[in-house]
Amino acid sequence: MQFANLKSSDCTAVTVKRENEIEQGTGKRLSRKLDKEWKGSIVVRPPPSVKKLQEENAAKGTEKTS
């Protein structure tokens, strides 16, 4: 990973993560694979405020058709 574009706190977090992986015996290749699986498992959801607006709009839409 290249640290040139990261801030110092981000670099520290990445370094600590890598040190922990070395202690556990995780190789770089497996680390990248696990990161990819973890990122793929994240479900993107709208914030509660947007969700509430969507529900209100849906309710208005059903009222108009009734």
Give an overview in words.
The chain is an all-alpha fold and 66 residues long. The chain is 73% helix and 0% strand. It has helices at 8-24, 28-40, 48-65. The longest helix is centred in the last third of the chain and has 18 residues, at 48-65. The radius of gyration is 21 Å and the shape is elongated. The relative contact order is 0.06. The model has no long low-confidence stretch (mean pLDDT 84).
Question: What topology does this entry show?
Answer:
Elements: H1 8-24, H2 28-40, H3 48-65
Mean of all residue-level pLDDT scores: 84
Number of helices: 3
What's the end-to-end separation, in Å? 57 Å
Strand-residue proportion: under 5%
Number of distinct beta strands: 0
Largest sheet: none
How does the helix and strand content classify structurally?
A: mainly alpha
| Uncertain segments | none
Task: State the order of secondary-structure elements, H for helix, E for strand.
Answer: HHH
Question: How much helix, percentage-wise, in residues?
Answer: over 70%
Which value, in Å, is the CA radius of gyration? 21 Å
Q: Return the domain count.
A: 1
The coarse silhouette is elongated
